[in-house]
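Researcher: I'd like a candidate sequence for this fold, 436 residues long. If you have to choose between options at a position, lean toward the conservative one.
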């Protein structure tokens, strides 16, 4: 084990937005406690920002616009990256690691594509790369997967990992409002960004799914491996239909092991709006909260719940990583890096077994139900329930299937759209949280 440092631990913070501001505040306010927990003082050596002229709650002498110099500075031991984006933080983190600094980052978009590259540099330099804050804010889920469950076999990770979309879907469920109305309200309240695309189209959740799947299955999974659909097409009618099935709709990130037809193990990582029974624990996760359910062979089902975003909650996870990295600097040794020994292949979405809910406007006459049912049966898709709502011009058929390969379900929906008796396939959603 390497010899530890016998002096204060120098920290550089890159970025002073919501999270960076809270990290700096906690570092200053809790300096005495952090010293005791680490075994050496943690000293802030500099804060890199884009606009150096702006007034900030930190000694102006610590502010710099030169992040590249700060991350290689001799008196910096740990770099905390909170600037977001890809290219700039990728280069800064690589440089910091190459110069022997441990790195703490909350940058899920960067990690989803470049954990392999950065972990490789960290391994060569024998330093830490920690990222608890990258998934689900304050909720400890990275460390449980990497450490607490290191001796178990994780079968499935499913969760609500995006607060913005959960806020929107919860409000649509509670108030019956349409997507655009609630999105505008979420923007006014500061839950949705000016450009909400990354959140509402599921990119943010897909990055987090890639990180979770990589850790859970000891396999390199990148954002491009994650099947993704967002929530921007969800309507008030969808939520009303969900209610009539005693369900709600959640944007879920699902990572699981699946076996192919000859029993060979593969993995699936996917993000899409999902019907979840009201009795399922994830249905009770409302507003901007996040929750992750982990199922492991021996541990069984574990649920992690809490604040998935926001300055102070995310800073809590950053500080946890910072203390771990600082302890390693003081006492010697390193935490675990990524493990990708299993190298499982990624199953295409079409092979994944899912359940569908299909709502369609239909002609209200004899033979329609059998024509609709025939399209399911032709593709070996078994129907679990079928219900008619309304009559005559307003007749709607709502079909819920058993599990079937997603490709067979999608082909069935395409065929239904071509039937004379079907005026419109109004809504198609997948179901989770049931075993049928
Ligand atoms: N934009 C994210 C969310 C928070 O809405 O949950 C940061 O990951």
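Model: Candidate sequence:
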């Amino acid at each position: 084990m390497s010899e530890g440092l016998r002096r204060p631990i120098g920290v550089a913070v890159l970025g002073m937005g919501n999270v960076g501001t809270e990290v700096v505040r906690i570092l200053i306010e809790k300096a005495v406690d952090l010293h005791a927990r680490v075994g050496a003082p943690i000293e802030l050596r500099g804060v890199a920002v884009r606009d150096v002229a702006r007034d900030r709650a930190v000694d102006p002498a610590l502010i710099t616009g030169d992040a590249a110099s700060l991350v290689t500075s001799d008196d910096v031991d740990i770099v905390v990256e909170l600037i977001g984006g890809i290219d700039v933080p990728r280069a800064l983190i690589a440089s910091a690691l190459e110069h022997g600094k441990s790195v703490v980052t909350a940058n899920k978009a960067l990690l989803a594509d470049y954990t392999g590259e950065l972990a490789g540099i960290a391994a060569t330099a024998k330093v830490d790369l920690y990222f608890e804050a990258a998934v689900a804010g304050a909720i400890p889920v990275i460390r449980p997967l990497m450490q607490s469950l290191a001796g178990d076999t994780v079968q499935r990770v499913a969760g609500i990992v995006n607060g913005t979309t959960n806020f929107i879907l919860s409000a649509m469920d509670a108030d019956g409002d349409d997507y655009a109305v609630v999105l505008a309200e979420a923007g006014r309240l500061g839950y949705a960004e000016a450009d909400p695309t990354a959140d509402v189209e599921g990119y943010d959740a897909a990055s987090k799914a890639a990180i979770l799947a990589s850790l859970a299955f000891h396999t390199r999974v990148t954002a491009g491996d994650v099947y993704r659909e967002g929530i921007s097409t969800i309507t008030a009618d969808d939520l009303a239909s969900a209610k009539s099935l005693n369900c709600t709709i959640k944007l879920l990130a699902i990572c699981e092991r699946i076996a192919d037809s000859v029993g060979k193990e593969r993995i699936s990582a996917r993000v899409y709006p999902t019907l979840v029974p009201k009795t399922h624990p994830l249905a009770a996760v409302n507003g901007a909260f996040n929750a992750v359910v982990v199922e492991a062979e021996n541990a069984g089902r574990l649920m992690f719940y809490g604040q998935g975003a926001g300055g102070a909650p995310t800073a809590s996870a950053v500080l946890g990583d910072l203390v771990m990295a600082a302890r390693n600097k003081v006492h010697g040794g390193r935490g675990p890096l990524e493990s990708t020994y299993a190298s499982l292949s990624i199953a295409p979405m079409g092979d994944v077994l899912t359940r569908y809910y299909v709502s369609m406007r239909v002609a209200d006459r004899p033979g329609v139900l059998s024509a609709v049912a025939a399209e399911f049966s032709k593709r070996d898709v078994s129907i679990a329930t079928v219900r008619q709502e309304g009559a005559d011009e307003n007749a709607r058929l709502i079909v819920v299937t058993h599990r079937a390969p997603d490709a067979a379900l999608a082909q069935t929906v395409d065929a239904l759209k071509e039937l004379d008796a079907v005026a419109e396939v109004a809504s198609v959603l997948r179901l989770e949280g049931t075993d049928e």
